[in-house]
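re: the backbone from monday

yeah here it is again, tokenized this time
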């Protein structure tokens, strides 16, 4: 970066500080840590160290780490610190039992850091702020040292980072920030795009709009603007380019998510005469979506690389389940046994594991037999008999039934029997994403069943093992490959040809965002970021159905697609003249579309406080989804068909967002 500045300006940058917030904080602390009683040779804890310390504190405090995830709590503490709240500040804001646990752990965590003469990543910014506020002489030194301050990617700053900027620039006010509120997509980790608006107003700052785009065609920019301009309160700007209009955006409607993946990879294959592999990128909202595209790419022998994550069959949760299956098929498989014996946790340490393996080393006794008879072996006398015998019973029963069960039912029974969902969702802060991958594995098995009638679980595992073995693409940055990644990982990159896939309601916007207007706006910005990665050709794809845990479910297209003007779109409808795979569901869909025509109502609005306040047929207004009509009511849920968002099932806990339109 320094070299680029020198090259562009001709100025000497040898004394300039060109650093991240965290690296700048380290240098400040190396010089001033003694201000708070720390030595200058302090240690820095990375995220793994922080999680380990939290876990240790939880065990000492008797807090169940199976119920409360140490990784999630460490992440929560980091967010609290970056919002500049001390343990004492947070105690005053406790609202739940979870908050009580976090507050207790946070206090002990801070004491342990000090005892260990350590700072975590959050401290590298928050502690210099504390020192600046405590010692004006230190602050004045840095205000004098840094007469001019420039901050890049300002929309991604958190509260602590913004506070540091304000402190350093409070005297000279020579501050330049560069950011784009339309690209703020990290709110879930503390970033706050409101800092852009606050900075503008606080300093009466001169706003310079950088609207010329040197990457994308005019059509792509028009589509991007149509999506993002719907966000209220955003800075009024519109990207433009001197590039040609370019091709229309391709909107692909497939019957199933498998057909969607097949078309995307076929399209890449057809464009290889004009482009190299490295020119293509496939974006999706969640990591679990990569599986179908990986399989299609492998079939066509197209090299690819997953960015920001592992390939599907290399992910921990997938390898766990496959190891269980392999052990059931081959009870002498020591590698699989070693992987699963503590998954979920069964309190088997290294010494105990070695004892179990030693008993099996004669090659005559299977691991399943050892588990079933564990209490009869004197050398295993101190092991948890009941947990191991129960595991042995599960494995033996499934082994006996493996040729009678369909592969999907076999794996579903296995997952339920060992309590894997509870284990993996609480494994770390990515637990829910990990479970999504397990669901996708079930989808893979179901597809295999459909393609191979009469196949057994043994056949599936053999097939998938061969497929995974063939998937050995060098991790070399110079290699020519198709790039696969989530939309979050796409930020800052560009590709001539882009596919944004899985554009259905519940994925984009993600289901977790649907009860917060601010979160839905961030999902919209995420879509915008994906669109603006495309240079020449952009494809947007969705399917009429998706597999979820082995079942085919109907789904609605993303509502964001409704905002794209037809003049910029070329539709590719793979759904036409296809067999109706939903039967009665398609009739319901048609009926919903007919009902929606009669949704207008101009009466007074009455807030819904209880499910008893509404009835089937009522016209309603929802604060996020707009106008709709009540289609069904149960004890705890209301099904509403919305004019712009389709059918939604809303919990009784969220009825305050609904108002009934009186006739």
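seq for it, each position gets an aa:
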């Amino acid at each position: 970066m320094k070299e680029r500045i020198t090259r562009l300006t001709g100025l000497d940058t040898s004394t300039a500080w060109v650093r991240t917030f965290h690296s700048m904080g380290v240098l400040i602390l190396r010089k001033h840590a003694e201000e708070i009683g720390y030595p200058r040779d302090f240690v820095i804890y990375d995220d793994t160290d922080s999680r380990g310390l939290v876990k240790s504190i939880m065990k000492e405090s008797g807090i169940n780490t199976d119920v409360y995830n140490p990784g999630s709590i460490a992440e929560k503490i980091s967010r609290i610190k970056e919002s500049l709240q001390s343990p004492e500040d947070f105690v005053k804001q406790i609202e739940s039992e979870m908050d009580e646990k976090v507050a207790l752990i946070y206090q002990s965590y801070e004491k342990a850091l000090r005892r260990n003469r350590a700072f975590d990543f959050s401290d590298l910014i928050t502690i210099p702020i504390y020192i600046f506020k405590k010692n004006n002489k230190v602050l004045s030194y840095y205000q004098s040292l840094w007469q001019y301050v420039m901050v890049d990617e300002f929309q991604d700053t958190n509260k602590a980072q913004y506070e540091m900027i304000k402190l350093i620039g409070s005297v000279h006010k020579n501050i330049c920030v560069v950011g784009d509120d339309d690209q703020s997509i990290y709110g879930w980790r503390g970033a706050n795009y409101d800092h852009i608006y606050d900075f503008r107003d606080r300093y009466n700052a001169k706003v310079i709009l950088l609207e010329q785009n040197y990457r994308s065609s005019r059509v792509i920019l028009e589509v991007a603007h149509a999506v993002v301009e719907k966000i209220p309160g955003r800075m009024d700007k519109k990207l433009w380019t001197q590039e040609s209009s370019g091709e229309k955006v391709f909107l692909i409607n497939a019957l199933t998510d498998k057909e969607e993946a097949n078309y995307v990879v076929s399209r890449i294959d057809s464009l290889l005469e004009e482009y190299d592999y490295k020119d293509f990128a496939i974006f999706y909202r969640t990591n679990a979506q990569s599986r179908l595209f990986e399989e299609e790419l492998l079939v066509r022998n197209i090299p690819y690389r997953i960015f920001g994550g592992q390939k599907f069959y290399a992910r921990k949760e997938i390898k766990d389940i496959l190891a269980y299956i392999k052990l059931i098929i081959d009870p002498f498989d020591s590698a699989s046994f070693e992987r699963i014996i503590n998954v979920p946790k069964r309190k088997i340490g290294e010494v105990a594991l070695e004892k179990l393996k030693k008993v099996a080393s004669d090659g005559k006794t299977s691991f399943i037999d050892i588990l079933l008879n564990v209490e009869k072996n004197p050398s295993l006398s101190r092991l948890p008999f009941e947990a191991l015998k129960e595991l042995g019973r599960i494995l033996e029963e499934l082994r006996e039934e493996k040729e009678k069960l369909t592969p999907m039912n076999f794996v579903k029974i296995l997952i339920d029997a060992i309590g894997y969902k509870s284990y993996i969702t609480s494994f770390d802060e990515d637990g829910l994403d990990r479970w999504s991958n397990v669901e996708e594995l079930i989808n893979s098995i179901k597809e295999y069943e459909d393609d191979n009638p009469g196949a057994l679980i043994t056949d599936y595992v053999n097939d998938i093992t061969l497929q995974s073995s063939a998937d050995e693409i060098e991790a070399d940055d110079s290699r020519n490959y198709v790039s696969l990644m989530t939309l979050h990982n796409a930020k800052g990159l560009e590709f001539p040809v882009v596919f944004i896939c899985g554009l259905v309601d519940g994925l984009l916007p993600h289901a977790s965002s649907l009860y917060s207007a601010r979160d839905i706006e961030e999902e919209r910005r995420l879509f915008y970021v994906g669109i603006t990665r495309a240079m020449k050709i952009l494809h947007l794809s969705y399917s009429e159905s998706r597999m979820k845990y082995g079942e085919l479910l109907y789904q609605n297209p993303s509502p964001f697609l409704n905002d794209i003007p037809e003049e910029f779109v070329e539709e590719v409808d793979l759904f036409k003249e296809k067999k109706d795979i939903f039967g009665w569901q398609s009739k319901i869909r048609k009926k919903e579309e007919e009902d929606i025509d009669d949704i207008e109502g101009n009466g007074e609005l009455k807030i819904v406080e209880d499910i008893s306040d509404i009835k089937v047929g009522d016209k309603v207004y929802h604060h996020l989804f707009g106008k709709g009509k009540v289609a069904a009511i149960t004890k705890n849920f209301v099904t509403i068909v919305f004019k712009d968002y389709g059918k939604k099932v809303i919990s009784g806990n969220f009825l305050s967002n609904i108002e009934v339109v009186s006739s």
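The radius of gyration is 28 Å. The chain is about 45% helix and 15% strand.
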